[in-house]
Write a structure and sequence with these properties.
By secondary structure, the chain is of the alpha/beta class. It is 35% helix and 18% strand.
Length: 330
């Protein structure tokens, strides 16, 4: 049984600055408001630089965007002027320029600044200049927290559990962004599954230029230019026996996909070797494989899942995540 906190954030004024990460931040904001917070939300960069064909063209042509970013920063500073925020929660933060962060600190001298990282620090060029500007820093990466004094370890969350009354007609599923060598690994997994009589579902999403290049090579099967709607992802998770996980090679923290698997009460096949150090790890439910040879074991895939303790599962709910992240500094 997953407990729902009362309105424990009532009376708190919180500024949330995110990265426009699909609809995860929308879920965070909605739950904060449900728990009573008076919330103001911004993205770290203007939408024109983040989404759509124009954003892709700007990145591709490397246009100078300083003016666009500066106007966005001024809008945020004007909106928070004399606002009396108790906390500022920043997700990732690498899109926020250091002078702007300093100006924001000056504008909100009474606010506690909290940074949450859901990327490994070695992937974030320039993050070292930003870390000292926060009162608390939390990371999803156990390795970063262990190696860096002052960084708290806090894994990610699942938003909600799917309905479990659907037939499990998919043996192995994967839904995720197409990056690095992920497509080649997925193609190997699909071939291995076919050879062993296992069913699969794959949904990869990417930008339109990458999709076009793959289409011209006749390699765009299961690749899309739109993300899979969250409700549909929940249905796919519920229909799956196992969820496949291929984190970025430079990332050691557990992915959102891994934590969503806990919420779905499904088994996991992953290349994340550090998963054996987490409290939810169980060899009956989680199989660690080598990145270069994603072989599937039909006996593992078909075996029933072992139950997980309620208190362990609760630690990975959105509510538990919010409680830890928004806990005021002592």
């Amino acid at each position: 049984m997953i407990k729902t906190p009362r309105q424990d954030l009532a009376g708190r004024k919180i500024l949330l600055i995110g990265i426009g990460f699909y609809d995860y931040e929308h879920s965070i904001a909605m739950r904060m408001r449900e728990r009573g917070a008076e919330l103001t939300v911004f993205e770290d960069l203007p939408r024109v630089l983040r989404e759509g064909l124009l954003a892709g063209l700007i990145r591709h042509l490397r246009w100078n965007t300083d003016g666009i970013v500066a106007r966005h920063e001024q809008r945020i500073l004007a909106a928070v002027h004399d606002s009396g925020f108790d906390q500022v929660l920043v997700i990732k933060g690498i899109g926020l320029r250091v002078p702007f962060l300093r100006a924001l600190r000056d504008a909100l001298p009474q606010a506690e600044f909290v940074l949450y990282q859901w990327d490994s620090l070695n992937r974030l060029d320039g993050i070292e200049d930003r870390l000292p500007l926060f009162h608390r820093v939390l990371s999803f990466d156990r390795k970063d927290a262990n190696e860096r004094p002052g960084i708290e370890f806090r894994p990610l969350f699942f938003r909600e559990a799917p309905a479990l009354d659907l037939p499990q007609d998919i043996d192995v599923s994967f839904v995720g962004w197409l990056h690095s060598d992920r497509l080649e690994s997925i193609r190997r997994m699909q071939a291995d599954a076919r050879a062993k009589g296992l069913t699969t579902y794959v949904y990869l999403f990417t930008g339109w230029l990458t999709w076009l290049r793959l289409a011209l090579k006749r390699n765009a099967a299961d690749v899309h230019t739109r993300t899979l709607p969250y409700r549909e992802m929940l249905r796919i998770n519920a229909r799956s026996r196992c969820i496949y996980d291929l984190p970025h090679a430079l990332q050691t923290g557990m992915t959102m996909r891994t934590i969503e698997t806990i919420g779905a009460c499904r088994k996991l096949i992953t290349t994340a070797t550090d998963i054996v150090n987490y409290d939810f790890y169980a060899a009956n439910n989680i199989r660690v494989i080598q990145a270069g040879a994603p072989a599937l074991d039909p006996s593992f895939v078909k075996a029933p899942i072992a139950p997980m303790a309620d208190e362990v599962r609760h630690r990975y709910t959105l509510d538990a995540w919010l409680t830890d992240v928004l806990r005021p500094a002592e």
